[in-house]
Amino acid sequence: MRAMVLDKPRQRLQLRDVEKPRPDRRQLLVRIATCAVCRTDLHVADGELPDPKLPLIPGHQIVGRVEEIGEEVDSKFKVGDRVGIPWLGWTDGECIYCRSNRENLCDRARFTGYTIDGGYAESTVADARFCFHLPDRYDDVEVAPLLCAGLIGYRSYRKTGDARRLGIYGFGNAGQLIAQIALYEGRDLSVFTRPGDRTTQQAAKELGAVWAGGSDELPPEKLDAAIIFASVGPLVPAALRALAKGGIVVCGGIHMSDIPSFPYSDLWEERVITSVANLTRRDGEEFFAIAPRVPVRTKTETFSLEQANTALDRFRAGELQGTAVLTVTE
Ligand SMILES: [Zn+2]
Ligand SMILES: [Zn+2]
């Protein structure tokens, strides 16, 4: 099968003809239709995340159809079913985290397109326990960006509890998806962009934000919660300063530049800073239940499998108009 392979970080992906994988007893063999490109793919390709599997087939927002089913897989899936394969690819089910509903923190977790092969290919195998059925209202391209920006964004959003005044720093894929759910649930949304990015601020207001401005500005009202989707450490103290008492800053990305120091008085009065790591299957089930009701809409730009390097380059340069989605097979 054709695959785009990362031999080493900081090198171009190589188009290869590799052996088609075979499913083990607990896996599905999936013929891939689409795979969305995530910022994490850039972090992996650029060597910003430690110890990837090498050589590696990247990609963890995979949409495809079941071609073969391992003998121990329960009856949830049939041959021909459409499935989504997310970032969390395998857990041991027995560590202290798995046994306390925190499988996202599993000591031995494996991650699709990072420590196991992912979706920049014609086929893949995936542990059936971590595959999702996908809502019918979305086609294969539209639904792909929901599998990471949606799921991990949703986990970040849930960490904000019932915060009425919600700020989002970074209005990329995850920010735009979560903003739609926040507005649907009646939150007062403030959106922070790069200083001077009037186009994005205007887009946020058109979507329904009560305020949109630069990350160096403060909204007229303090926030109960802020989610940071940009991988920019200095946004953490900036968001902290925008919080009301008891507020929370949620860092939604896997990688962030260093956070500068800040006075304790900015944290005082029970303000909280937390990160969000990975996802649980429950996040996925909840998200795919709410997304079609909103309905959450995605904006995409499609590329062929062979154009994966172009998609990554354009993502890195900030030139994409929507989430890049590789269209692999019909
Ligand atoms: Zn575990
Ligand atoms: Zn991702």
Shape: globular
Radius of gyration: 20 Å
Overall mean confidence score, pLDDT: 96
Parts with pLDDT < 50 across at least 5 consecutive residues: none
What does this protein structure show overall?
With 330 residues, this protein is an alpha/beta fold. It folds into 2 domains: 2-147 and 299-327, Quinone Oxidoreductase, Chain A, domain 1 (Alpha-Beta Complex), CATH 3.90.180; 151-275, 3-Layer(aba) Sandwich (Rossmann fold), CATH 3.40.50.720. 21% of the residues lie in helices and 26% in strands. The strands form 4 sheets. Strands 3, 4, 5, 8, 9, 16 and 17 form a 7-stranded mixed sheet that branches. Strand 1 (2-5) and strand 2 form a beta hairpin. The chain binds zinc ion (2 copies).
Structural features:
Rossmann fold; Quinone Oxidoreductase, Chain A, domain 1; alpha/beta; binds zinc ion; 7-stranded mixed beta sheet; 330 residues
List the helices and strands and how they pair.
Elements: E1 2-5, E2 14-17, E3 27-36, H1 39-45, E4 62-69, E5 82-85, E6 88-90, E7 110-111, E8 123-127, E9 132-133, H2 140-143, H3 149-158, E10 165-169, H4 173-184, E11 188-193, H5 198-207, E12 211-214, E13 223-228, H6 235-241, E14 243-251, E15 272-275, H7 281-290, E16 300-304, H8 308-316, E17 323-327
Parallel strand pairs: 10-11, 10-13, 11-12, 13-14, 14-15, 16-17
Antiparallel strand pairs: 1-2, 3-4, 3-8, 3-17, 4-5, 5-9, 6-7
Helix pairs in contact: 3-4, 3-7
The gist of it:
The chain has 330 residues and is an alpha/beta fold. The protein has two domains: 2-147 and 299-327, Alpha-Beta Complex (Quinone Oxidoreductase, Chain A, domain 1), CATH 3.90.180; 151-275, NAD(P)-binding Rossmann-like Domain (Rossmann fold, 3-Layer(aba) Sandwich). 21% of the residues lie in helices and 26% in strands.
